[in-house]
Amino acid sequence: METITGAELAAQALIDRQIPYVFSLSGGHITPVYQHLEKSDVKIFDTRHEQSALFMAEAWGKLTRTCGVAMVTAGPGFTNALTGVASAKFSNTPLVLIAGCVGLDNKEKLDLQDMPQEAVIRPMVKKTFVCQKGERINEYVDLAFRTALSGRPGPVYLEFPIDVLNAPVNKEAVRYTRTEVAANPADPDKARALIEMMLKAKNPVVIAGTGAWQSNAEEELKTFIESTGMPLFTSLSGRGVLSDNHPFCFEGAIAIRPGGGFAAYIETDLVIVLGTRISLYYLFGDIFNPAAKIAQVDISPEEIGRNRTVDLPVVSDLKGFLKACNEIVWQKDVSKELKDRFAPWIEKLTTAHKDGKALSENDWTSDNIPIHPLRLAKEIDKFMNRESDIVVADGGDTTTWMGMTRTVGTPGRYLDYGIFGSLAVGLPYANAAKLLYPDSRVCLVTGDGSVGFNFMEFETAIRKNLPIIVVICNDLGWGMIRHSQEIRMGHAIEDGTYIGKVDYHKMVEAIGGKGFFVEDPKDIKPALKEAFESKKVCCVNVMTDPTTVSPASTMLANIGAYKA
Question: Which domains, from first to last, does the chain contain?
């Protein structure tokens, strides 16, 4: 009888899937899998913290629209991974987390790092799989990837007890399965119903989100917008699915972004929500005109109707649905009618968009010292190419300033933490982006608070030769919380909101990178130029005005549970 170990089966399943990287931090309970991945085509990318491994896997999934893969050891390795799993769940990112655990024979014996891992993570993922028989390992790997990618993408948990990995298995008993799942077909009746709603509307608004990116619907969306003449706003991973520079695209959908969004939402009579959720970003639906009709297209039926009654619910893959809509517009020959109908609305929003941006122009061009954070965001936006470069944002207020500013010309080139709002994604996201796109410039802009969570991933970037540029928006502490406390309570609680001046740039220099210290706004561009020309991992420590309050801080004050 010819045998093979469970660990070799697990490793071979990943090799057969041509997984390029497994993001991981080593441990005893996963060493058997490491042993069979060593020198294979699947590269183990080791981070300094399991949380970083998960964030890197999430970023990989976001950028590639394939499964990111992370692998962690039992107990504390597993618990360290949970925040990244939750982030992937909120961002609808396909991800497979593989974890080792205590052997079946040693459960409840107080063995090293024993804990009920599957029970802990079950509410946080699409599904959990615990493989207890070595001959079914390949089958379980197939289940995990298929589940992560099918329907609405998301994280899946796959657990292997150490004795299952180490046990010999009869090769003839091994089960092999491999299935690819097709997307939901589009309903032509729903497509016709949407076109009829559009023919009755005067002020429609289209919001395209992550679903537009993950379903590869860029071309179909572009055709849909251009053939109907409707205004488009984009959100989350959908940023850039139609360039911000397109005449019908009015940039980011979040209402606090300078531009025409607020005017569009309060005057619209038809909101078409494509592959995104009606969330805090839209004040849970309250920002839209109460009289507006709502059409929502989502691959997940339970998502449709959250926070707002939906007049036309459509359960469909977005790419297929938009294709069906485009065919109907062509067949009915209504393209010109729709574009003529919506032309005054486009003209009105174009004016509102310019007027809305003008309100922030003084801050974007401010010469104040300390530096206005919007000036820093604008300098980064102007310096980084909007088509090929990658910008990552991390931090509370810092992500807000960058989200208010960054112009996105290509999808998959702007990353932030999205609706889950987890700080610490920045360095792992930037490292993953540079790993995927080694020839593209990658700039992370992060807060001085958020950069501390996974600071040693600077060392990972240096060790792995990933020359990212990290700009720290240094406002001396936890600015968003500080300002929300000031608004709500009249003062900030210094313990917990104030960090003080820290020479982060010198810390990066000490481990082999290059550092810059910037206090004057005119020095931002030269520092960025020198940093990228150095071809090194760089930290640009920029002192920004600690008194500047972002719109997000104001919103947090209004929803925070502070004592009156």
Answer: 3-173 (3.40.50.970), 188-358 (3.40.50.1220), 362-559 (3.40.50.970)
CA distance 449 to 455: 10
- Collect all residues with Cβ–Cβ distance below 8 Å to 260 and sequence separation of at least 6: 231, 250, 349, 350, 352, 353, 356
231 CB burial (10 A radius; 0-12, 13-18, 19+)? buried
CA distances from 470 to 431, 448, 490, 541 (A): 11, 11, 33, 8
Torsion angles phi and psi, residue 69, rounded to 5: -125, 130
Q: Ramachandran region of residue 110, left (φ > 0), alpha (ψ -120 to 50) or beta?
A: left
SS3 22: strand
Token couple for 526: 């030269």
At 170-195, the pLDDT tens digits run 998 898 888 777 777 788 999 999 99
Edge-first strand order for the sheet with 270-274 is: 249-252, 232-234, 204-208, 270-274, 293-298, 312-315
Q: What is the number of residues in the chain?
A: 564
Rounded Cα gap, residues 123 and 142, in angstroms = 21
Which tens digit of pLDDT belongs to each residue from 57-112? 999 999 999 999 999 999 999 999 999 999 999 999 999 999 999 987 777 777 77
Helix H or strand E segment including 162: helix 162-166
User: Distances in Å between the alpha carbon of 144 and those of 32, 80, 98, 172?
Assistant: 20, 21, 9, 23
d(CA 319, CA 316): 9
Distance (Å, whole) CA 2 – CA 467: 47
To the question of pTM greater than 0.70 for the whole model, the response is yes
Per-residue pLDDT of 387-401, as tens digits, reads 999 999 999 999 999
